[in-house]
């Protein structure tokens, strides 16, 4: 099936092959560095996230893309924050509804999804009643509707993701423009 | 008692067969898509490099390609390390190293672009030939204009010999790809070889020519 392409790769000199592999690596590296640069600029470890559940309707629906930022100022009631509960990987996007500030600057934060009946204490770890600023990845600064659906589909059908990356990689190696 | 003559003949036969196989590989015809200008140019550029490497006595100097490869792989190493480091350490601690990797990556890439723009430009072949009393240098530039089928090849020749006076020659061919490719996209290597040999001779003669 890929005879032509394999023959093409074999006819290349060592340097040309090295150049083709480099082209592929450069694409990956550029994407990675742009992502990391954005993370450093917004001071948030994951500056763009996708909403997975409907717990923030009618503000955000499943499949929306959210842009995050983490300024140095303290959290305020009413901010919509993306936070991770320690020990779990999936971040949650809910609103801050209650706040206690200590003089040291440490904040005790309680969150709740707009569309949920109860606050998030049921989601926190057993015995945990509050979260803190360290658990928060970022505050929501902006959003784009529907765009995140692509990520959801790719995660529900991982074969699509691997197939796409596979074909893109092969295309990069063969193409010489 | 074995006959030395027939034994010798038997040994010779396998050697001859091997050489024939190699020649068949080398003469595999070059076929490209006639309508794709990029493919045409790449095929000609590759052939020029192969021709000057094998059919003349020039030794190719890969300094531009090597510089690009080394810098390219170095920048990717920084990028991949920065990405990996960010995965395994918590965000706040990884900030400094990630920042350094991002900056280094972009700086190296800028250097790469400047190098290609200022130093490499459109050079596709850099060759040198040294004998006991002469040192010759050949530089070949090629370019094409967008949507045009004219292929420009510039031969630049420089010689330093013991007589003290350096020889400098320059010769440019501007011809359509159609001169060496037929309707099916097969390259007529003999014709192209003649053009290249002719260009080299004229450039060697030490005058400035434009066709």
From TrEMBL, chain A:
Enzyme Commission code(s) on record: 3.4.21.89
Keyword terms of this UniProt record: Endoplasmic reticulum, Hydrolase, Membrane, Protease, Signal-anchor, Transmembrane, Transmembrane helix
GO terms assigned for molecular function: serine-type endopeptidase activity; signal peptidase activity
Chain segments annotated as transmembrane: 21-41
Catalytic activity: Cleavage of hydrophobic, N-terminal signal or leader sequences from secreted and periplasmic proteins
Keyword Ribosomal protein: no
Membrane topology: Single-pass type II membrane protein
GO biological process: signal peptide processing
Keyword Hydrolase appears in the UniProt entry: yes
The family this protein is said to belong to: Belongs to the peptidase S26B family.
PANTHER family per the UniProt record, alphabetical: SIGNAL PEPTIDASE COMPLEX CATALYTIC SUBUNIT SEC11
The protein's name in its UniProt record: Signal peptidase complex catalytic subunit SEC11
From TrEMBL, chain B:
Source species of the chain: Gigaspora rosea
Position of the signal peptide: none
Record's function text: Component of the signal peptidase complex (SPC) which catalyzes the cleavage of N-terminal signal sequences from nascent proteins as they are translocated into the lumen of the endoplasmic reticulum. Enhances the enzymatic activity of SPC and facilitates the interactions between different components of the translocation site.
Name this protein carries in UniProt: Signal peptidase complex subunit 2
Recorded family membership: Belongs to the SPCS2 family.
Membrane protein topology class: Multi-pass membrane protein
BP-aspect Gene Ontology terms: protein targeting to ER; signal peptide processing
Record region (Disordered): 1-31
Annotated keywords: Endoplasmic reticulum, Membrane, Transmembrane, Transmembrane helix
Segments traversing the membrane: 67-85, 97-119
Cellular compartments annotated: Endoplasmic reticulum membrane
Pfam families: SPC25
PANTHER family: MICROSOMAL SIGNAL PEPTIDASE 25 KDA SUBUNIT, SIGNAL PEPTIDASE COMPLEX SUBUNIT 2
């Amino acid at each position: 099936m890929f005879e032509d392409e394999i023959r093409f790769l074999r006819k290349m000199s060592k340097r040309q092959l090295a150049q083709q592999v480099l082209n592929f690596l450069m694409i990956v590296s550029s994407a990675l560095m742009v992502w990391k640069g954005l993370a450093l600029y917004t001071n948030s470890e994951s500056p763009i996230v996708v909403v997975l559940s409907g717990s923030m309707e009618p503000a955000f629906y499943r499949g929306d893309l959210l842009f995050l930022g983490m300024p140095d100022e303290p959290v305020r009631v009413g901010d919509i924050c993306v936070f991770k509960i320690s020990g779990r990987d999936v971040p949650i996007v809910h609103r801050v509804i209650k706040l206690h500030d200590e003089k040291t600057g440490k904040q005790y934060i309680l969150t709740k999804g707009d569309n949920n009946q109860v606050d998030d204490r049921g989601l926190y770890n057993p015995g945990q009643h509050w979260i803190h600023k360290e658990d928060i990845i970022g505050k929501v600064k902006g959003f784009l509707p529907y765009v995140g659906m692509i990520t959801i589909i790719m995660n529900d059908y991982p074969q699509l993701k691997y197939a796409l990356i596979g074909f893109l990689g092969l295309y990069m190696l063969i193409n010489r423009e | 008692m074995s006959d030395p003559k027939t034994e010798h003949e038997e040994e010779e036969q396998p050697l001859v067969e091997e050489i024939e196989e190699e020649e068949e590989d080398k003469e595999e015809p070059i076929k490209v898509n006639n309508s794709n200008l990029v493919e045409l140019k790449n095929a000609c550029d590759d052939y020029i490099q192969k021709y000057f490497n094998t059919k003349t006595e020039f030794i190719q100097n890969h300094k531009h390609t090597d510089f690009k490869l080394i810098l390219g792989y170095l920048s990717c190493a920084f990028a991949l390390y920065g990405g990996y480091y960010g995965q395994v350490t918590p965000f706040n601690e990884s900030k400094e190293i990630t920042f350094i990797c991002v900056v280094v990556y972009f700086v190296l890439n800028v250097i790469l672009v400047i190098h290609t723009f200022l130093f490499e430009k459109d050079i596709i072949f850099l060759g040198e030939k040294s004998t006991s009393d002469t040192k010759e240098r050949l530089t070949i530039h090629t370019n094409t204009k967008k949507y045009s089928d004219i292929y420009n090849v510039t031969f630049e020749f420089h010689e330093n010999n013991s007589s003290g006076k350096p020889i400098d020659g320059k010769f440019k061919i501007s011809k359509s790809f159609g001169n060496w490719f037929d309707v099916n996209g097969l390259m007529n290597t003999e014709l192209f070889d003649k053009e290249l040999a002719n260009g080299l001779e004229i450039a060697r003669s030490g005058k400035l020519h434009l066709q």
